[in-house]
Write a structure and sequence with these properties.
Length: about 200
């Protein structure tokens, strides 16, 4: 007797509800799709304003921290990496993520990365800000991410959070054309005026 397709478990994601996995696999390429705490979320791809802020931030950090040009090096920084964290797992796509090189010393052979980042950055838009704060920040904390940045291009604000035993601690709030040293990249000064420009 053939098996009931409704009861077939996905061999790659056996701990997640099969209908959630099916929706995840069938999602359009025009959306960002995540599964956090077993729940599927879809968000529109970033509009140019938000994608530009993420790209400029990557260009501000990577030379010094990935390549060691004018900074300490020692990091792997990736835009929109597909994270696969924990046993269930949580599947998430932060706008930027970074790992100390010794924690991600070899390039993964799969599309997803299962090593917990040391840093994540979300560029919030009106359509993603609730999800970023209510779902992704707790997920990042639960998996042990050490620093999280929230960038809001509309308000022109950066918030820097450090993981503590009690929860996320806001250690820096900057905005406009501020030039700051922001954890964990405080070895250099970063100017934020360019993030808000096209």
């Amino acid at each position: 007797m053939p098996s009931d397709p409704a009861h077939v478990v996905d061999p790659e994601l056996p701990n997640l509800p099969r209908e959630v996995v099916a929706a995840y696999r069938d999602a359009s390429e025009n959306v960002v799709v995540e599964i956090i705490d077993g729940e599927l979320s879809t968000m529109p791809r970033p509009a140019p304003r938000y994608a530009s802020a993420a790209s400029i931030l990557d260009q501000s950090i990577s030379p010094a921290f990935r390549w060691g040009r004018g900074g300490p090096g020692g990091w792997i920084i990736r835009p929109e990496p597909e994270l696969r964290l924990g046993a269930n797992p949580d599947l998430a796509v932060p706008d930027l993520a970074g790992w100390h090189r010794e924690r991600l010393s070899t390039m993964p052979l799969t599309a997803s990365i299962s090593v917990v980042p040391d840093w994540v950055c979300e560029v919030r838009s009106p359509s993603t800000q609730r999800h970023d704060r209510v779902k992704k920040m707790p997920m990042c904390f639960r998996h042990g991410v050490r620093h999280a940045w929230m960038v809001d291009p509309e308000a022109q604000v950066l918030e820097v959070f450090r993981r503590t035993e009690a929860g996320w601690l806001l250690v820096l709030s900057a905005g406009g054309d501020d030039v700051v040293r922001a954890e964990p990249f405080d070895a250099i000064e970063i100017g934020f005026a360019a993030l808000w420009e096209w």
